[in-house]
Amino acid sequence: MAACRITVDEGRCAASTTCVLVAPDLFELPPDGDTAHVKAALVDDPGLIELAREAEESCPTGAIQVDLVA
Ligand code: SF4
Predict the structure, then answer these.
(1) Band (33; pLDDT cuts 50, 70, 90)
(2) Computed from CA positions of residues 21, 6, 51, 45, in that sequence, does the dihedral angle turn out positive or negative?
(3) Alpha helices in the chain (DSSP H)
(4) 3-class secondary structure for the chain?
(5) Whose CA is nearest to atom 6 of ligand 1?
(6) Is residue 19 within 6 Å of ligand 1 at its C-beta?
(7) Are 56 and 21 a contacting pair, CB within 8 Å?
(8) 18 lines ligand 1 (CB under 6 A)
(9) Does residue 7's CB lie within 6 angstroms of at least one atom of ligand 1?
(10) Secondary structure class of 65 (helix, strand, coil)
């Protein structure tokens, strides 16, 4: 089964919260934080992979990367 690794480049994140709105199971933005964090760095559920790719495409700064690892 395919799996994907999700990463956020904190240097590029502009804290837009888009990824949190698109995929709240995968991303969070701490109240006192200025960058998004990945809640699940490695996912193999097809639905979550699809959401991760949606977030990747939606990120206004291109900070999210989703890579196939399996
Ligand atoms: S969508 Fe991109 S810029 Fe916005 S919070 Fe998420 S990682 Fe940061």
Answers:
(1) confident
(2) negative
(3) 18-22, 46-58
(4) CCCEEEEECCCCCCCCCHHHHHCCCCEECCCCCCCCEECCCEECCHHHHHHHHHHHHHCCCCCEEEEECC
(5) 19
(6) yes
(7) no
(8) yes
(9) no
(10) strand
Give the nearest ligand 1 atom to 14 CA.
Answer: 3
pTM above 0.70, yes or no: yes
pLDDT digits (tens, 9 = 90+) for 45-60: 999 999 999 999 999 9
Atom of ligand 1 nearest to the CA of 20: 6
Q: Is the CB of 8 under 6 A from ligand 1?
A: yes
CA distance 1 to 33: 34
